[in-house]
């Protein structure tokens, strides 16, 4: 009778909410992700149906998230994760700025004539794909060439994964996995910048720079002094190695254009602006795009691998296998279309995997609260046994309460603050989704 009186009934969610949780919890999230990629591919097969189905799919997903948000029980955990999320976002924006400056530098330092004349590096991966085109059935080759998934798809897949925390598909907080994703992305971008700026490699597309940039045709004075005189003369290279001194004089070329950028004028020598590229350094950087040199390693593949790693750890199942197959498809298409050399895609895959493994301290699918409860249970085990022998029900309840509290994090904030934060988070995230759709739709 005491047990019957002490056991409080659990509140049951409404049928609609329970159905939505069951739908997404038992593979529904994977179905939603596959539907998004499939429906978006209709833009190539049937543009009319794409225009009809894509807005309907996004409306259904947005309504499902909005309906579930008021019943989400872990907004307090999201609020605690918010400061680290903001810090990771700031780090990622700083990494992108550093990368954009470096992309412009490696694209402009050698001048336009070098881009036109530099031969692409021999790439055995490209040779292999061309050979397979001759051996495989045409239907398979067409599948390998198809633009099934691009950069914005991987970004949207991760946003869908983050939103699934509302339906208890992944472990809370959702901002925790978002923080890990952005922090890992920032570190990966910084490592990428250090890598491609260390040695300038020719593009697999020699016409790219002329089509994309307004850069001077001649090399920068730095390249004129330290590279150009020794690039093709074996005796000059031997002398540089022997004396370890750059002895050649700077050649006679037109002077460098030097606009007045105020405090940012130190970037003039790095970015090499031209009169037709706008009045400010920021306006020039917006045209940096993906660069025209080979940028070791692939940034597109880094995004794809981090998305696949996040899905594999947080959700798993058949959809994670499908995403990894799409990652491999994206890699071969990057090589096939000569956006990157094979080495760029290979390095991006293992760097992305290793970086994601190293940042587990930020967020992990493992239940840390369960581990804390087990530790507390070990501490009170002897007291619990003695209380059971003495039939002390109150002592047993008190000890079990201590174990349960050990697995919970302190809230420390008011309910009103949590509700305000929830509303702001939903609005901010939906805004990011709209911006990602409009600004990255071309990959």
What does this structure look like?
The protein is mostly helical. The protein has helices spanning about 1-5, 15-45, 45-70, 75-110, 110-115, 125-135, 140-145, 150-165, 175-200, 210, 220-225, 235-245, 270, 280-285, 300-315, 320-335, 340-360, 370-380, 380-390, 395-405, 415-440. Helix 9 runs antiparallel to helix 15 and helix 18 (about 370-380) runs antiparallel to helix 20 (about 395-405).
Which features does this protein show?
Sphingomyelin synthase-like domain-containing protein, mainly alpha, 443 residues, 67% helix, Sphingomyelin_synth-like_dom, 21 helices, transmembrane helix, ceramide cholinephosphotransferase activity
Write a concise synopsis of the structure shown.
This protein is 67% helix and 0% strand. With 443 residues, it is mainly α.
Please count the beta strands (DSSP E, at least 2 residues each).
0
Distance between the termini: 65 Å
Q: What's the helix-strand series?
A: HHHHHHHHHHHHHHHHHHHHH
As a percent range, the share of strand residues is under 5%
Unreliable stretches (pLDDT < 50, length at least 5) are 1-26
Number of helices: 21
Which structural class fits the helix and strand makeup?
A: mainly alpha
- Whole-number mean pLDDT: 83
The shape, in one word, is elongated
Percentage of helical residues?
Answer: 55-70%
Biggest pleated sheet: none
Radius of gyration of CA atoms, rounded to a whole number:
28 Å
Keywords: Lipid metabolism, Membrane, Sphingolipid metabolism, Transferase, Transmembrane, Transmembrane helix
GO cellular component, one term: Golgi membrane
GO molecular function, one term: ceramide cholinephosphotransferase activity
Organism: Oryza meyeriana var. granulata
């Amino acid at each position: 009778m005491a047990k019957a009186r002490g056991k409080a009934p659990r509140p049951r969610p409404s049928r609609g909410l329970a159905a939505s949780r069951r739908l997404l919890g038992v593979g529904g999230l994977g179905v939603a992700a596959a539907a998004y990629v499939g429906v978006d591919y209709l833009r190539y097969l049937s543009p009319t149906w794409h225009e009809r189905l894509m807005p309907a799919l996004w409306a259904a997903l947005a309504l499902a998230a909005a309906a579930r948000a008021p019943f989400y029980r872990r907004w307090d955990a999201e609020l605690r994760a918010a400061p680290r999320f903001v810090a990771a976002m700031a780090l990622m924006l700083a990494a992108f700025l550093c990368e954009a400056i470096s992309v412009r530098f490696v694209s402009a330092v050698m001048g336009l004539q070098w881009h036109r004349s530099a031969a692409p590096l021999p790439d055995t991966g490209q040779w292999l794909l061309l050979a397979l085109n001759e051996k495989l059935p045409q239907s398979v080759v067409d599948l390998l060439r198809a633009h099934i998934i691009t950069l914005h798809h991987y970004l949207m897949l991760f946003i869908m994964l983050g939103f699934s925390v509302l339906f208890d598909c992944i472990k809370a907080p959702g901002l925790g996995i978002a923080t890990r994703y952005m922090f890992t992305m920032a570190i990966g971008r910084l490592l990428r910048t250090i890598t491609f700026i260390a040695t300038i490699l020719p593009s697999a597309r020699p016409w790219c720079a002329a089509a994309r940039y307004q850069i001077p045709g001649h090399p920068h004075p730095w390249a004129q002094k330290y590279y150009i005189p020794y690039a093709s003369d074996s005796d000059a290279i031997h002398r540089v190695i022997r004396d370890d001194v750059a002895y050649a004089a700077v050649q006679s070329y037109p002077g460098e254009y030097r606009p007045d950028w105020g405090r940012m004028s130190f970037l003039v020598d790095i970015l090499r602006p031209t009169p037709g590229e706008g009045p400010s350094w920021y306006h020039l950087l917006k045209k940096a795009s993906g660069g025209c040199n080979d940028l070791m390693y692939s940034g597109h593949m880094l995004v794809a691998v981090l998305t696949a790693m996040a899905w594999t750890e947080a959700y798993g199942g058949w959809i994670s296998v499908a995403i990894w197959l799409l990652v491999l498809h994206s890699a071969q298409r990057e090589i096939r279309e000569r956006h990157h050399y094979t080495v760029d895609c290979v390095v991006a895959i293992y760097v992305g995997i290793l970086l994601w493994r190293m940042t587990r301290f930020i967020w992990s699918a493992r239940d840390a609260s369960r581990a804390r409860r087990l530790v507390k249970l070990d501490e009170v085990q002897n007291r619990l046994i003695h209380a059971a022998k003495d039939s002390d029900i109150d002592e047993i309840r008190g000890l079990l309460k201590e174990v349960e509290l050990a697995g919970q994090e302190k809230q420390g904030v008011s309910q009103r603050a949590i509700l305000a934060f929830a509303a702001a988070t939903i609005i901010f995230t939906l805004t990011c989704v709209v911006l990602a759709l409009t600004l990255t739709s071309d990959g």
